[in-house]
Amino acid sequence: MIYQSKLQKLYKEKIVPILIKKFEYRSVMEVPRLEKIVIHQGVGSSVFDKKIIDHSMNEITSITGQKAIFCYSKHDESGFKLRKGMPIGVKVTLRRIKMYEFLERLIVVSLPRVRDFNGMKKSSFDNYGNYNMGIIEQVIYPEINIDKIKKNMGMNITFVTSTKKNEEAKSLLSLFGIPFKKNKNG
Question: Where is the Large ribosomal subunit protein uL5 N-terminal domain (predicted)?
């Protein structure tokens, strides 16, 4: 028997029929799906302190359960004292089971820990069916030990879907359980 996470089962058993009925797809292959989740943390101050980027890499690795990789600068920028090839960020791309497990932990555990949380912005969709959300502090994740934090750093999380329409992607993500704001201007 192949292991499936709860959200993966939910997608196959309940979300697919709901989306087929709502958008009148003719085939199951037309139904939008979540392809990958990319977590990126830019560490601009790593130019001055090399330990910050190593600490950031350890944090992202512990949050996602997958080894993070460095993002390097592509060209020199004298105004920021940046040279080509210097590490300036950390990223992880999650797919398949790890993606669904991370999404479940984000919805069930991490988002409720955000202070003054009233939903995700509906305007953060690009016009290609992808959703971007920013997190201000990494302390919302239970994997992070608050006593060992050297600097509060945010991160960007991108949900990449197989559809090119924002309405279909929003329906997919809201059926997974991502809470969007209720008002119209959010």
Answer: 27-83
